[in-house]
Amino acid sequence: MNTNSNSYTLIYATVMVVIVALTLAFVSGALKDTQNKNVKVDKKKQILSSLLIDTKDQDAEALYTKYITTALTINSNAEIISDNKDEAFDIDVNKELAKKLEERKLPIYVANVDGKVKYIIPLRGTGLWGPIWGYIALNEDKSTIFGANFSHASETPGLGAEISLPAFQSEFIGKSILNDKNEFVSIAVMKAGQTTDKQDQIDGISGGTITSKGVEKMLLNCIGQYEKYLKTIDGGAKK
Amino acid sequence: MSKLLSEKTKQVFLVPLSKNNPITVQVLGICSALAVTAKLEPALVMGLSVTIIVAFSNLIISLLRNTIPNRIRIIVQLVVVASLVTIVSEFLKAYAYDISVQLSVYIGLIITNCILMGRLEAFAMANNPWESFVDGFGNGFGYAWILVVVAFFRELLGSGTLLGFKVIPHSFYEAGYANNGLMILPPMALIIVACVIWVHRARNKELQEK
User: Fold this and answer.
1) Looking at the 3D structure of chain A, how many domains does it have?
2) 131-190 in B: which are within 8 Å (CB) of A?
3) Contacts of A197 (CB under 8 A, 6+ apart)
């Protein structure tokens, strides 16, 4: 057979594309459910690790049910829209960030660790190469950081990717996002050696400046949405 | 069995490990050698994934080699490689989620590895399936061991760890030893690859240009 004729080439390409498309669609369809489940379990693990709970080799689902008492959906005016745990969990934070501030549905997880209430805020931002995200847990005073967890899609290993390591994340513990006057100031991620007196700061990553700045911006943008909620305790304004 | 272990097949497997190494002799796949070697673990997994994918795409292309229209052969090769990479990545996401998160972009980057196209075009298009399969493994391992050597030195000298474990004792740091930050940056990978090539050529005189 002449494998160089135009019609043979055309038919060959068509058949090849159809076979490949069918195979890929079949593989993707067959694995979709398992993958979605993994994504959800992974999200729960990330939320738990912001509470400094080690989820390695453990049943993350059970731990999540144990520690996360409820999850609220609020708006930027600190009004509670829903207190359905699953509804808040299923909110796509990226889609909400694209809306106007007043229209956004903001999920906040409420946890109970050893009798103390913790508030967990989801974070979404951009690093050098792609998205970065994380969860930050605040103490009862809604200001002091109890723990933080960051993940990234494609930051440089050894540089920007260090944000997902405990060494970087543990720097956040004990820092405050509100200043003495109860104003929202977020946390600064600075080059080692530089100082600021306006807000709490942590050391950025050498060689990972853009990722470090991305974390700083993500904290400011995402926690900022909850500003009103964080400034109040149980409906009343903080002194 | 005699065919499986014939002298030629053995050569097909052994030559890419040293005398015709894809990285140090053919200088292919350099981009990924720079990108994934800051730490030992991603280098190991990348080496393994490339080995599997190059072996199986070699096998598939070799089986199809007599039917592929000459004018679209590169496209056919690309489609085969891209589908294999996508399938591997989907399986990792479903059954080894943690590893797939860790590898993130590297899996996709396998498609752009020049070794794959090089082997498909130069070997699988002209040889029988079994030899092509073996050739894929040989080249994959040839690629992997260079990656591991480079990553070993970069992680040891750059971070003071191996596979994430601290190996340089604390007392060294107290005595004034510091990790070399340059080791983590891509230029150092290029310099280490160059050193490997230098040693390799010094030991194999026939590789030196007259």
Assistant:
1) 1
2) 158-159, 181, 184-185
3) none
